[in-house]
Design brief:
The chain is of the alpha+beta class. The chain has eleven helices and nine strands. The chain is about 50% helix and about 25% strand. This is Gas vesicle protein GvpL.
Length: about 270
């Protein structure tokens, strides 16, 4: 009976010299059988575990991810927790969930081919953390603020008061649309200003799509979603600024939510 064929499940790659400072501690891999290990390719070290080729072959893996939601959730959490742990110890380029190589040889070939790009990434993310900021808004307090302080709406209201009563009725209906437009404008300007201030602290930033209430399950609308790559010695300043803005704007209906530190997912792909 032949030996069972295994594939390579790659968690991430780190600078090989950092393993000399912080030795690698093996952990149980995604299949709960094999121990994770490392392989060095020059200045690059891969952290991986072997997995059964039959179970992790393309079509079989796709079917499992679609049909076995319990396995998917548990395995995705395992992958995420491993990366969080590794990120605390090394300059980590994290791999996406279920990054599979058919053999040691194919992994080595890929890493050697991408060595220059990988070294550049190590330099970019060294000593940094990824942080996410989501900004939520309660429209009602902000809508009231817009009604009270928007010059264009005040002008329109004054204009309506000079019209005959019949015309006033129809023109007032247009106010609602004008308020909605001003509300969106106010929200965008507010979030962009916050983002600009945080960008001065961060090394890099990316704006993401805001999630709908269907995704967040929250009552408040998400108005902004962005990620920042921040040097560890700047994280405190970043969080203090977020907290300050949160406190200053809470009465106007704003709520800030900063989460992290995360592996640099958004800055390595």
């Amino acid at each position: 009976m032949g030996q069972k064929e295994n594939y390579i499940y790659l968690y991430g790659i780190v600078p090989a010299n950092e393993l000399d400072v912080t030795p690698f501690s093996p952990f149980t891999g995604i299949d709960k059988e094999q121990k994770a290990t490392i392989a060095r390719y020059g200045d690059i070290a891969a952290i991986y575990t072997e997995v059964d080729a039959e179970a992790y072959e393309g079509e079989a893996l796709e079917t499992r991810m679609k049909d076995d939601l319990e396995w998917l959730q548990e395995s995705a959490m395992h992958h995420h927790e491993v990366l969080l742990s590794l990120q605390k110890q090394y300059t980590l380029i994290p791999m996406k969930f279920c990054t599979i190589y058919l053999s040691q040889g194919s992994l080595e070939e890929k890493l050697c081919e991408q060595a220059e790009t990988i070294e550049t990434l190590f330099t970019r993310i060294k000593g940094s953390e990824e942080w996410n900021l989501k900004i939520y808004c309660d429209d009602e307090p902000l809508r009231e603020h817009v009604l009270q302080h928007s010059p264009s709406i005040k002008e329109k209201m004054n204009e309506i008061e000079t019209l005959p009563p019949g015309r006033q009725f129809f023109e007032k209906r247009k106010i609602d649309q004008l308020v909605d437009d001003e509300l969106e404008k106010e929200k965008n300007q507010f979030c962009e200003q916050i983002h600009a201030e945080l960008t001065e602290i961060a090394s890099e930033e990316k704006v993401k799509t805001a999630w709908s209430k269907d995704v967040t399950g929250r009552e408040l609308e998400m108005s902004w979603n962005s990620v920042y790559l921040i040097q560890k010695n700047q994280v405190e300043a970043f969080l203090e600024l977020v907290q300050q803005k949160n406190e200053e704007s809470a009465s106007s209906g704003w709520k800030f939510e900063a989460t992290g530190p995360w592996p640099a997912y958004h800055f390595v792909y």
